[in-house]
Design brief:
Arc Repressor Mutant, subunit A; two-stranded antiparallel sheet; binds zinc ion; 2 domains; elongated; Four Helix Bundle (Hemerythrin (Met), subunit A); about 260 residues; mainly alpha; disordered N terminus
């Protein structure tokens, strides 16, 4: 094959592919690169970040793509944009890549979309699990709940691995597609609920609900298990928790503003 060195068509091709990918992809890459910048420079919460124009040059992105990336990073709590002052690292946490691809926390109905998807997957999973789980499976789920119960009794702020109970049920259903989707949902859930879980303290309530779900599974009552899973995933309650978190954050910001004034 004859390669014409004067005609670097691969460059033209890759450029047009990039253009076709659009602002969303560019912003997504910028999110990754800014996160990597924070990590590789060992920045911690409270450290100031370079101004926008430095990132625009460094990442070769447009101002609008950068702004979109900064909005995402700010929504998930990685950076803190203080108008008229600059950008700061808010907390250092890896973005969960699968969850990020699936889930845009800035989307208007992010919480609703996530909860509805969890409902679909988890109702399907509990249906499969009631039919297929062995007695040993259910006994090990019982053991998990008992251990969590012991931790909760010692420490009301105890927080278990996100969706630990739900993932165990999905696994018992034996459907690997449901399991893979539930893992993505878990990552998306972590992105949305970081800071929410510990401050709201729903774990005692959730634990009681998990016990009821398990009881319905042990009696192999599919309809009851489905109903309890739906009640456990009440969108209304999640919305209250989200409002609570936003309120608590505003209160904290107000308190720190007050203490600066004093
Ligand atoms: Zn649960």
């Amino acid at each position: 094959m004859n390669v014409d060195k004067n005609e670097p068509s691969h460059l033209t091709n890759s450029r047009s592919r990039l253009e076709r990918a659009g602002t969303g992809r560019v912003a997504e890459r910028a999110v990754d690169e800014i996160t990597r910048y924070i990590e590789s420079n060992g920045l911690v919460a409270g450290d100031k970040l370079p101004p926008e124009r430095v990132f625009i040059d460094m990442l070769s992105v447009s101002r609008s793509s950068l702004r979109e990336a900064l909005r995402v990073l700010s929504t998930v709590g990685v950076i803190d944009v203080r108008h008229g002052d600059g950008m700061y690292v808010a907390s250092v946490k890896p973005l969960h890549s699968a969850g990020k691809a699936l889930f845009d926390a800035t989307e208007q109905h992010a919480l609703r979309n996530l909860v509805e998807t969890r409902q679909g997957i988890e109702v399907a999973a509990v249906t499969a699990a009631v039919q297929r789980a062995t007695d040993e499976d259910l006994a090990s789920l019982q053991q998990m709940l008992e251990q969590q119960g012991t931790h909760l009794a010692d420490d009301p702020d105890f927080v278990w691995e996100p969706l630990e109970f739900e993932l165990a049920i999905v696994e018992m259903g034996g459907n690997s597609w449901l399991y893979d989707i539930e893992l993505m949902l878990r990552d998306a859930w972590q992105t949305l609920s970081s800071g929410l879980r510990a401050s709201v303290g729903r774990h005692t309530e959730w634990h009681a609900e998990h016990r009821a779900i398990l009881a319905s599974m042990r009696s192999r009552n599919i309809t009851q298990a489905q109903r309890l899973v739906m009640a456990h995933l009440s969108l209304e309650r999640f919305e209250q928790d989200l409002a609570f978190r936003t309120g608590a954050r505003k209160e904290r910001a107000q308190r720190s503003a007050d203490s600066t004034i004093q």
